[in-house]
Amino acid sequence: MPSRRLLKSVSMNTVLTASLVLFQMVSSHAPAAATSAAGGLAWTAPKEWGTAPSTSSMRVVTYRVPAAAGDSEGGEVAVFFFGPGQGGSTQANIDRWIAQFKAEKGSAGPGKPVSMKVGAVPVTIVTTEGTYSSGMPGGAMTPKPGWALRGGIAEGPKGPVFFKMVGPKKTVAAATPAFDALLKSLKKG
Question: Number of structural domains, the chain?
Fold first, then answer.
């Protein structure tokens, strides 16, 4: 018959092994910042954002933006790359994105686009809010009142890369620092 001391040692080893396995399982599923690339640019997404299956073959990646307190749904950041010379001009995309929103009483509407450089990468940022027409162009549109957009268009070495965040106003406002950090992480490569 095994001694108490041997049983205690086996039990402790079992507990330690199980704890280590559990720790490795938990830490391997912990969110980590994800690096992605397109158009000759690389960026790092916030670790708080998960990815979602892309609803279009034109999307490089779709990030899920967690809902802000009080919002019934979260937002998303869709990243598009169409190839060299494709996707339209920066201004054409700004105009199209703003046209997806209908002004609401009391909404700020479109802000003035802001151009900046992230290292050697030219980036234009645009914002707007109102009722968003959600859906694919030419398809059924779902009106989403009280929504906002913050978009960034980065001029990559192989063509423009489009970053489009949409969601309820509070969610977009809460996620703006993380979105801006993603844009500030842009690097050629």
Answer: 2
Q: pLDDT tens for residues 22-54?
A: 333 332 333 445 559 999 999 999 999 999 987
User: How many Cβ atoms from other residues are within 10 Å of residue 143's Cβ?
Assistant: 12
Distance CA 162, CA 147 (A): 19
CB atoms within 10 A of CB 17: 10
- What's the CATH number where 105 sits? 3.40.1000.10
Measured from the Cβ of residue 54, the count of other Cβ atoms closer than 10 Å reads 14
Is the backbone of residue 70 left (phi > 0), alpha (psi -120 to 50) or beta? left
Indicate whether 56 and 15 sit together in one domain.
Answer: no
pLDDT digits (tens, 9 = 90+) for 54-104: 777 788 999 999 999 999 999 999 999 998 888 889 999 999 999 999 999
The residue segments making up the domain with residue 108 are 32-188
